[in-house]
From TrEMBL:
GO terms for molecular function: glycosyltransferase activity. It comes from Desulfacinum infernum. The keyword Glycosyltransferase applies. Residues 18-187 form the Phosphoribosyltransferase domain. It comes from the Bacteria. Pfam families: Pribosyltran. The lineage of its organism: Bacteria, Pseudomonadati, Thermodesulfobacteriota, Syntrophobacteria, Syntrophobacterales. The keyword Iron does not apply. This is Phosphoribosyltransferase.
Amino acid sequence: MLFDGMDSPYRDRDHAGRVLAEKLSGMGLPNPFVCAVPNGGVAVAIPIARALQAPLRLVLVRKLPFPENPEAGFGAVTADGFVVLNHELVKAFRISQAVVERQKAKALESLRLRRERFGAGWTHLPPLENASVLVVDDGLASGSTMEAAVTSLRAQNPGALIVAVPTASMGAVRRLETVADRVVCPHIGRFRRFAVADAYAQWCDLEDDAVREMLRGFHSHREVSREN
């Protein structure tokens, strides 16, 4: 469904996750395994993992920011060092290989610290062969970080690799359709101007402490479900 950004289709990330979970539950995915892109993707992924009774792990990705404008990025890198570049931006802004390597090194150090912060229990991935891997975030603007995550996960030869996001720009959806087996996105922005936050009536940045608390709650709920 296309939306113009005037009305927010989701109350918050949890609501968005429940909407996605309903759609994904009807797909009959064998051996579902949920990979969330933190931080915002965790809040969306938890309702999905619960609905599918699937394991949940984090896939750590960091954008490669412009040195002069850290809010904007020209690519992304995963914790295992896989890099995706927006070659049009690299060429247009004459970003040298030295700058790419410097920004990559900074991002990898940040990802190393994040891995320590969340712990190996949440960031270490088991073998994913024959799994239907769902890569979840709270939305896609350019799609660079998600492309890096998907391409990195592809190396593990999952049975299927599915991007599941509540909202995305049309350009990001088209980009991800070239690297994922399927993109599930209920609301796609139809205008050139796109912001992930526009899809949510309630939006805030999530801090690491809040994400860790969510993960603890998910783990406790999963343990209780197993006992019952």
